[in-house]
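Dear U.,

For the methods section draft, I wanted the exact inputs and outputs in one place so we can describe them consistently. I've listed the two proteins in the order they'll appear in the manuscript figures. Please don't edit the C-alpha cell lines directly; just add comments below if something needs changing.

First protein:
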Amino acid sequence: MRDELNKKNEQQNSSEALTFLKTFLATFLITMVVATPLFAKVGEVLDMTPGGEDSPVLEEVIDFETLIPTDSPFFDAFTTTNRVNILLLGVDNHNLTDTIMLASFDIDNKFIDIISIPRDTYYYRGPGYIDDAHHKINAVYRKNPVNSAIAVSEILMNIPINYYAELSYQGVANIVDAIGGVPMDIPFNMRYNDPLDRPPLVIDIPAGPQVLDGKKSVEFLRFRQPNRGSGNRGYPEGDVGRIKAHQEFIKNAARQCFSLDLPNIARSAFENINSDISLRTALYLATKAIGMDPEDVRTYQMPGAVRGNFVQPNKQGIADMITEIYSMEAVVIDEEDGNEGEGP
C-alpha cells in the first residue's frame, strides 16, 4: 500500500513538474528568442532581465560554488563541468512553490537534465518553525527565489545554481490572453471545487471544442481530478492522460504564438516571467541548444520516501542520480553526514 502511495505521489509531482516546464519553456523561449532581436538595438538592453531591477540576481547574492566542500566527491564535477543550472519555480496564489525543478544544461554535450523536487520535500528550517508545513520545501520561498535556490542546492549535494526563473498562474493567464486564447477539444466536463483555496478554486470547463482564455487555461492546467465514475469524471489514464492533454495544450498554444503578432506576445511573456537570466545569456543558451531533439532531455524525480506528510530525501539515491547526470563514478554517501537537517 505504501509503495502504491509513493508511486502515486511521484507520478503527481512528475506530472506537475512537466506541466510547469512546458508552460515555462513555451513562454520563456518566445520571450528570449523573439524579444532579443526586437529589443537589442543597444548593448545595454541585452543585460535586461524579466522581472525588472528589483528582482534578486543569484550570482550577486551568493556564490554557490564556495558552498561546495572541497572534500566533496562532487567538487570537481560541480566546479569544472560546462553546465548551466537553472531553478524553475511555479508559484501559486499562496506564494508557495507548487512546482520546483532544476534544469541542468550540459552545453558541451547538448543534454538537458531536469530534476523534479516534490513540493512536500522535508527541509529542516530550525527550531523556530513549529508547524510541519513550514518544513516543507514549498514554504521556503517567501517571495524570494534565493531562499528556494539555497534549499534546493543543499538537498542536491550542494549543486551550484546559476539562475532562476519563476512563473505564476496569473502570468500564465496573462500570456494566454495575449495570444488570443488556446483552442482545445475538452474530452469531458472538467469540474472541481476547492473552497479552502485563496481565492476559492472553481474549475468548470464544459466538454467539446472551444477556445480557452487565460482564466480557463489555468483551470485546465490545474485540473487533476481522478476518474471516479460518471458523477465525478477525470482523466481515464490518470496522470498519464493529464500529461497528454497538457502536451496538446502546449502544441496548440505554440501554433497560436507563431501565427499572431510575435512582438506583442514576446512583450507579454517578458512582463510575466520573473528571472535573473539576461537577454544576452538567454540568446547564448538558445544558440547552444540549436539542433537538440526531445530525446536530449532527460527527466528525474528526486529520490525520497513518503513519511507522514513529508517526502524525506534519500541521500544515497540523490548521490546516484547526480553521478549519473554528471557522468561520474559511483559515490557512497554517509547517511549520518546530512545537509537536509533533522528528519521528520
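Second protein (the one for the lower panel):
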Amino acid sequence: MHQESDIRILFFADSHLGLDYPIRPRIERRRRGQDFFDNFQTVLDHAEQRRMDLVIHGGDLFFRSRVPARIVDLVYQQLLDFAKHGIPIYIVPGNHERSRLPPSLLLNHPGISVFDRPKTFLLKKAEKTLSLSGFPFVRKNIRQDFKSIVSETGWDAVPADARLLCMHQAVEGAEVGPVNYRFRYGSEVIRFSDLPADCLAVLSGHIHRKQVLTAETEYGKTTLIYPGSIERTSFAEKDERKGFFEIVVGPRPDSDAWHMKRLEFIELPSRPMVDVLLDPKIKPWDLGTHIRSQLAGLDDDSIVRFKCIKTVGHPFDGILTSAFLREVMPASMNFQLSTDFRTAKRTER
C-alpha cells in the first residue's frame, strides 16, 4: 500500500540511440537501430501509463558524441512528447556523449532536466522533497576526484526528506561480460566505500548488466543500482536480461525516516543472439545449404554471429560476403562475423 507522500521513480540507462540506424542506408535490410528506439519508447510509455512521479536516465542516451541531426531530433522529439504528460525526466550525460548532450531547443522544456554539470534538482510531492544530485560522466581520475565532484553538486546544502545520487560511472564490485569481469581498481573505478551513505541509493548507468549492490560501509548502508542497457549492444551481453527499474521511496510507517520501499526490475523484449559455427571442411558450394539448415530451427528475429572452427578465413574468403548472407538468410534476421574470421585471415597470409 502506497502512502500519498511515496515517490515513484522509473530508472533506466544506456539506450545507445542511433546505433545501427543509418539515415540514408545504401542497402535495404533490417537494422538493429529500430530495436533500441522501440525499447526506449516502451520505457517512456510504461512511465506514462503507470503515472510515475519522475523518470531518470542514467547516461549514454546516444550511441556516440557526434550524432546526425536527424537522430538528435528523433530522440529529443520522443523526450518532448513524453514531457508533455507532466512527468519530469532527468538525464545524465554519459561517456558515449563525451559528457555532453547535443544542444537543441527541444531540450528547453521545463520537464526535461540535464546534469550538464555537478548540480542538484529538487522534486516536491505532498509537502515532501526528494533531492536528485548528479554529474556528467567523468573520464579521468574519478577515483581520486569523486568526493569533491559529489560535493560540487551541493547535495547536502539543501534540506530534503530523501536523497538520490545519479551518475554514469564504474564502481568497484560491478560485474560485466560473459566471464563476469569485476571492477576493482584503477583511476576510472569509484571505491564502493566512497559512495555517500546519506543517499537512499546511488543510481548509475555505464554498466550494461542489471545489478544491485548493497554493502555496509563505515558511514552506513549504501545501495548501488545499475539498470543495465535497454537492449543487447553486443554478443558479450547475449544472455543478459534487459530492462529498467521501478523504485518506490517513502517514509517508514513508524518514523519520518525514508527508505526504499520497493525495487522491481521490468524486463524489456530482447531479440535472441545465437552463434552459428562453420567448419572449414564444408565445401564452398555447400555453404549456403549448410547455413540454411543451421538457421532452420532459430527464431526468425535472431541476431546471428558466424564463428569459425579453427581457420575458416581461407576456405570461405570471398564467399561469406554480406550479399551472400542476405541471400541465404531470412530478411528478419541480423548477422555478423566473429572476429575469429579476421584473425584467421591474418594467420593465413
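Candidate sentences for the figure legend, describing the second protein: DSSP finds six helices and 19 strands in the chain. Residues 344-349 have pLDDT under 50 and may be disordered.

Thanks,
Y.
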